[in-house]
Each structure stands twice: as C-alpha cells, then as structure tokens.
Amino acid sequence: MTGTRIDGSRDGDRLLITLRGSLDAMSVDALQSQLFDLTRVHDLIGISAPVRQIHIDVAGVDFCDAAGLRMLVAARRVAESRQATCHLHDPQPHLRWLLRATRAADLFDGV
C-alpha cells in the first residue's frame, strides 16, 4: 500500500476520514479493512453517540480506478446501514469526472 494512507478522527456523531494517494486494486483491500475498523472501533467505544455522519476527504486522492470507486460506494453502503449520511469532500477533477460518469456522484452529498 505504498503511498496510500487513511486517517480518521471522531467529532461527536461525525467520523472524518482522510484518504491520500491511489485508490486502486493494489491498495483498496487494506483501505477497506481500515475503513471498516475505523467505523467499528468508534461504535465499540460506546462512550459517545453512534456515527451518524461519515465525511470522506478525498482531496489527496491522486488516482482512482474501478476498485477504488467500489470502495467509496462500499463506504456509502456502510453509512446507509448505520442510518448515517456519507459525504465526499474536495474530489480532484479526475475523481469528480469518474463519479459523475458512473453516476456514483448521486450517492454522495457534496459532489
């Protein structure tokens, strides 16, 4: 997963996830596992409200292929299963084009 990173932080019922690097077949399995762990860990802590908003900052994503797009859609499904909203923030033009071309942009608030 060279050059690809995922970071997360919690603020109340909002989970902020920051993705950097390439979302591709080489990185997506590890990223998807980390994404699941981030949402699950925050639920298991149990000291605050459940996650109701998932905000994914994709400004640092420099490449995204079909596998990366599937991961973003899976994140949206995770949010939906938790009765949460899912927002993508600051997609680069290439990612915005991919989301719109595949109509996946309709799944996310803010695209």
TrEMBL record:
<dbReference type="InterPro" id="IPR058548">
    <property type="entry name" value="MlaB-like_STAS"/>
</dbReference>
<feature type="domain" description="STAS">
    <location>
        <begin position="15"/>
        <end position="111"/>
    </location>
</feature>
<dbReference type="InterPro" id="IPR002645">
    <property type="entry name" value="STAS_dom"/>
</dbReference>
<dbReference type="InterPro" id="IPR036513">
    <property type="entry name" value="STAS_dom_sf"/>
</dbReference>
<dbReference type="GO" id="GO:0043856">
    <property type="term" value="F:anti-sigma factor antagonist activity"/>
</dbReference>
<dbReference type="Pfam" id="PF13466">
    <property type="entry name" value="STAS_2"/>
</dbReference>
<protein>
    <submittedName>
        <fullName>Anti-anti-sigma factor</fullName>
    </submittedName>
</protein>
